[in-house]
Amino acid sequence: MTIAMPKPDPAILARRHEIAEAMRRIVPGEGVVAEPVEMRVFETDALTAYRQMPLCVVLPETVPQVQAILRWCHENRVPVVPRGSGTSLSGGSLPLEDGVLLVLSRFNRILEIDLDNRCVVAQPGVTNLGITRAVEHAGFYYAPDPSSQIACSIGGNVAENSGGVHCLKYGLTANNVLGVELVTMEGEVVRLGGKHLDAEGYDLLGLVTGSEGLLGVVTEVTVRVLQAPETARAVLIGFPTSEQAGACVAAIIARGIIPGGMEMMDRPAIHAAEDFVHAGYPRDVEALLIVELDGPAVEVDHLLAEVEGIASANGATTARVSQSDAERLSFWAGRKAAFPAVGRISPDYLCMDGTIPRRELPRVLAGMKALSERYGLAVANVFHAGDGNLHPLILYDASKDGELQRAEDFGADILRLCVEVGGVLTGEHGVGIEKRDLMSEMFGEDDLRHQIRVKCAFDDRHLLNPGKVFPVLHRCAELGRLHVHKGKLPFPELPRF
């Protein structure tokens, strides 16, 4: 599988100076970056294997500026790529050579803290962890906690429907966002949802959450914050095999226990994280579970005993319960640092993201081991075991001929395996460009056409984040009536990739 972006439009490239000047009129001062050396920092996101320079970069500070940028680009048929902190692992914020990169990092203020209604209103550039920091003094927190929470923006979380280690019990971004303010490609401001529990009519908020920047640009987010639990304790459980750890996960859920978080790491990830963070992980096990229980102290104590019994019945060789909040946080520090930790043992890696039914965990782990041997590339496994969201880290060296291609093919086969066992292509990283050409593995042509019709309703010219998510770019004008006549497609001048 070779990932490619659509070819840039020469007519737009020829207008580079004109477009940059138009953006400067809208966002004066230092709000436009157009010099190649200065744009280099924006050439990629967290899917660093792929790099592409944008046409120009615009950093607005107000909603009217965002409206004016989108309206001008719509009228002049210039593509736009929305971007937050650039932590996307699927290439969702990868720039376009012939597109404006609309960066929302200056939208970085919390607008309102309303603890009576248990919500926070924030601009999209506020970091995920920044929301918790703003309310923790009052005993509240924001539940979704991606590993990149110190850097990732809440607007990007909405775009990708991000999760985190505590999403098993408390849900993904979609379960914690109450409302958004959205600017359409034509420059119209739309409000969806709000502080109220639910909104009438179609669930447009649910549609926008996870839409990967294809439907509009989010300029304000209202999120639900939760009261911190009375008690939270975590237990580290080691197993001789990954299959036994996977069986333990299934048994815990089958018992009706829903932990605050339940994560799994295999030997390569355990050793990398321990070397990096020194969290006290056991080194003599093949798989490690981190299980956190929260709630009233008496309930937590009871559930910990239950979990330890289940683990023992499934072959666990070690179990260590946190004795303080600092120790609990150290357990999680190792898990949350697993991605950068693996970066210390391999020149490059691809972080995959697929989700499977929990009961299929042993089968998929065995399948990944066989694929690792077939492709001759090592893999470290770190994942949200409780909800079946896998994050295999494929280790490779981009300086060696063919290794990136082998890593891509390996990753594609992992995702095909996830779909084969009844899972899905992505749990929280999004489709972006990474999984775009695998969409047909999961969806039929009719499914994809219906999805594209939704895109057309919001963005009929396909100017918002083109080249992402959909494996074949259909234009709205031809959707539903594309046919072949004497071996030729209509409108041959339109790009199809």
Automatic annotation (TrEMBL):
PROSITE patterns from the entry? FAD_PCMH (PS51387)
Does the keyword field hold Flavoprotein? yes
Pfam families named in the record = FAD-oxidase_C (PF02913), FAD_binding_4 (PF01565)
Q: InterPro entries under this entry?
A: FAD-bd_oxidored_4_C (IPR004113), FAD-bd_PCMH (IPR016166), FAD-bd_PCMH-like_sf (IPR036318), FAD-bd_PCMH_sub2 (IPR016169), FAD-linked_Oxase-like_C (IPR016164), FAD-linked_OxidoTrans_Type4 (IPR051914), Oxid_FAD_bind_N (IPR006094), Vanillyl_alc_oxidase_C-sub2 (IPR016171)
For activity, the cofactor(s) needed are: FAD
Q: Which UniProt keywords apply?
A: FAD, Flavoprotein, Oxidoreductase
**GO MF term (any one):** FAD binding
Q: Tell me the ranges covered by the FAD-binding PCMH-type domain, including all copies.
A: 50-228
Q: Does the keyword Transport apply?
A: no
Protein name per its UniProtKB record: Glycolate oxidase
